[in-house]
Write a structure and sequence with these properties.
15 strands, 33% helix, eight-stranded mixed β-sheet, 294 residues, seven-stranded mixed β-sheet, alpha/beta, 2 domains, Metallo-beta-lactamase, Chain A
Length: 294
């Protein structure tokens, strides 16, 4: 075969392949996507809005979150519009440190609560080097992250309060889990749209105080530990789908049997990363559907 013809065919195949990828990525827009990434024993989620904005909520204990972002973000897109650090512990923050070094991050939501570890020092260095806008969450704040023609995607911050954050800056809480950011993600009409709760490792005694409406999706707190979920939380949320971010055969015994039993008794569909790999919940603002790797 003539070398010029061969080069032309190779170029055409590359062009066709890139075009196919672009079309597939375009078709994935127009809906809200929540991907609970399989990051092992930790939390790491990617939210993609109908207009293609990306929100990363925690990053897991290592670099696995980068693999997940590469799978679901367009290969040409190296910008994360919002990064949420729920609280400064290894199994939630380590992957964010790596993501900060590899992506342009516009805004970081963080309480500013300090953890005296080498990882946290690296987190501060990356923030200083990359200079994203820093947003300090405050219970009662509402963030519009995507305007989709009357069906806005909003984050309602439920915890912590500004009073607590001011207190923790002087004296961090004895249990960093108490400082976990809680927010509700909303999409669609206020009287009947889709919503989901995100809650880091928050203890149920705090979570049950701030839940203010039922939602079909609950990211189960603290990897399914008994400290993060009780019957009151489940009765207030009335979830239909429970996302449990947990690593296979972890040393903590997560998720705890008591939590699984409570979810089973309420006929909640449980999706676990250790059993299902990446789990995705998509919504058009009214209905939703769930898919997974396995």
């Amino acid at each position: 075969m003539d070398i010029r013809l061969k080069l032309l065919l190779i170029s055409a195949m590359i062009f066709f392949g890139l075009g196919a990828i672009f079309i597939l990525q375009t078709f994935s827009l127009g809906k809200l996507r929540i991907i609970a990434c399989d990051v092992g024993q930790g939390d790491g989620l990617l939210i993609i809005t109908p207009h293609g904005k990306q929100i990363v909520v925690d990053g897991g204990p290592d670099g696995k979150i980068i693999d997940c972002l590469s799978r679901y973000m367009p290969f040409w897109d190296h910008e994360i519009e919002l990064m949420v650090s729920t609280h400064p512990q290894q199994d939630h923050m380590a992957g964010l440190v790596i993501a900060l070094s590899k992506y342009k991050v516009d805004t970081v939501m963080t309480t500013g609560v300090v953890n005296k570890t080498a990882m946290f020092e690296q987190w501060k260095k990356e923030l200083s080097a990359n200079k994203p806008q820093i947003y300090t969450p405050n219970a009662g704040d509402e963030l519009v992250v995507d305007n989709s023609g009357g069906s806005d995607v909003k984050l309602d911050v439920l915890w912590p309060t500004r009073e607590k954050i001011d207190q923790w800056r002087d004296t961090p809480p004895s249990d960093l889990n108490d400082s976990s950011v809680i927010f509700r993600l909303n999409y669609g009409p206020p009287d009947g749209g889709f919503c989901a709760y995100f809650d880091g490792d928050i203890p149920y005694k705090i979570l049950e105080q701030v839940i203010d409406r039922q939602c079909p999706v609950l990211k189960v707190a603290h990897h399914g530990s008994m400290t993060g979920t009780d019957q009151q939380v489940l009765s207030e949320v009335r979830p239909q789908v429970a996302l449990i971010q947990v690593g296979a055969k972890n040393k903590f015994g997560h998720p705890h049997k008591q939590v699984l039993d409570m979810l089973s008794a309420m006929n909640v569909k449980v999706e676990r990363n250790d059993l299902s790999g990446d789990v995705e919940v998509d919504s058009d603002g009214k209905s939703y559907w769930v898919t997974s790797d396995k």
